[in-house]
Amino acid sequence: MTNNKVPFGPTYEEMLNPDTINPQIRQQAIQAAEQNELDPINLFNISWKDKEGQVRKVVLPKELTGVDANIVVMLGTYFPSGSHKVGPAYSTLIEGCVDGEILPGEHTILGPSTGNFGIGVSYICNLMGYDAIVIMPDNMSKERYERIQRYGAKLDLTPGTESDVILTLQRTYELKKDPKNRPLAQFELMPNYRFHRHVTGNSAIEAVKGIGNGRVACFTSAPGSAGTIAAGDQIKAVFPEAKIVALEPYECSTLANGGLGQHRIEGIGDKMCTLIHNVLTTDFVTLVKDDECVRGLQVVQERFKELTGLFGVSGLCNILGAIKMAKYLKLGPDDNVVTIATDGFDRYNSVLEELAERELEVTDNVLDRWYRDIFMEADTRHVYDFRGQDGKEQLFKQKEHDWLPFGYAQEYLDAMKSMEFWDSEYEKYKEYDEKIKEKRGK
Ligand SMILES: Cc1ncc(COP(=O)(O)O)c(C=O)c1O
């Protein structure tokens, strides 16, 4: 394989276990990660694992969490392009390629997003030789737009913020009418589910080896597209006692109670139940306040130097949700809560600058207070139990409300009420792996 040719990238299995990649390609990919992020061989670095094959993670210090349970955070910042969203972007594109639906030189890729997926799409399209248009709200952190443009995609902006993602979907449906355009529809397409169930889910299971009792008691994830939370399906398959928790902004509690509103946690809380969200395995919906995530990020950046740079705002949301659930479920020192930091601090400087402007003074005293109030005194309010039939019905209804208007059939949504639907969608990763190997000549 030469570097100027677009390589067909990794299989799902290789993203989970990069040590199964052809050793020469693996070696080239490891070098490219350090030398040239736009070398297409970097497709083979899409993985939670480092050079040594270990899942990149931190176990949070108890001085930060204030709970006995171990909170294990998997780190998305080390993925190519700086967030794990590059995984679903690649998976959706490669499935389209091997199915013959997306052809290089012929099709332009559309990426509806609030940022990281758009960054991932722009990056992947650069590496794989496609033109790309990222459709996103015009009020997200400026670091996001800069990166998308650096990777070469065009921007098509819709008004608003995170909570106005529905407008990006409507715009995508409009652009899709042009037969040249092919959307990577992260809210609707199953490669996002397959990537996270197989790659993130199994990596989470590996991440707790040697920690506490080596099992996962709880997994928390704040859905944007609800791709990441699919890891919960795999975790539950291996540890049936595990509780899967969807986190939402307190200010936009759509799953919990149909609430709608603006909030500051970029990447999550998109005012909908996405089509690919398997609500059958969602045990709880828990609300986290947006200001606590932004202030919590400032506390971590200032007071926990060993964690500096590793998290963004939604990472803090996932961590605060993990702390709440450890308290709510009364977990002890043997128990592990796993969660995800989708990206790192590199795209949130402007968010903390804005916080400083709003607060006027962030003194040591203020940081002490935030640390105490947000972490040490985290409470268990706003935890909603969705294990019963009523809870499931509520979430099915939300999904119908959100997706019937886009032309999906009632029968398709009804099929999603059975676990068989999800298991069979998941199993298709094996067929895609075969097709990818065939196309690239093994
Ligand atoms: C920063 C950030 N956090 C969390 C998420 C949510 O992840 P998912 O879309 O897999 O639910 C996203 C999605 O784009 C994101 O960008």
Portion in strands: 5-15%
The whole-number mean of residue pLDDT values reads 95
Helix/strand structural class: alpha/beta
Using the alpha-carbon principal axes, give the shape.
globular
CATH domain topology of the domain at 57-80 and 198-385: Rossmann fold
- Going by CATH, the architecture of the domain at 57-80 and 198-385 would be 3-Layer(aba) Sandwich
Protein name: Pyridoxal-5'-phosphate-dependent protein subunit beta
Keywords: Pyridoxal phosphate
GO biological process, one term: alpha-amino acid metabolic process
InterPro entries: Cys_Synth/Cystath_Beta-Synth, TrpB-like_PALP, TrpB-like_PALP_sf
What does it look like?
Pfam families: PALP. This is Pyridoxal-5'-phosphate-dependent protein subunit beta. Its cofactor is pyridoxal 5'-phosphate. With 442 residues, this protein is α/β, with parallel strands linked by helices. The chain has a domain at 57-80 and 198-385: Rossmann fold, CATH 3.40.50.1100. It has helices at residues 12-16, 23-35, 62-65, 86-98, 116-128, 142-150, 165-175, 190-207, 231-238, 254-257, 290-303, 313-328, 349-359, 364-376, 389-403, 410-415, 419-440, and strands at residues 57-59, 70-75, 108-112, 131-137, 154-158, 181-183, 218-221, 243-249, 284-288, 336-341, 383-385. The protein has a seven-stranded mixed β-sheet with strand order 1-2-10-7-8-9-11. Strands 5-4-3-6 form a four-stranded parallel β-sheet, sandwiched between helices. Helix 5 (116-128) packs parallel to helix 6. The chain is globular. The N and C termini lie close together (12 Å). The relative contact order is 0.13. The model is unreliable at 1-5 (pLDDT under 50).
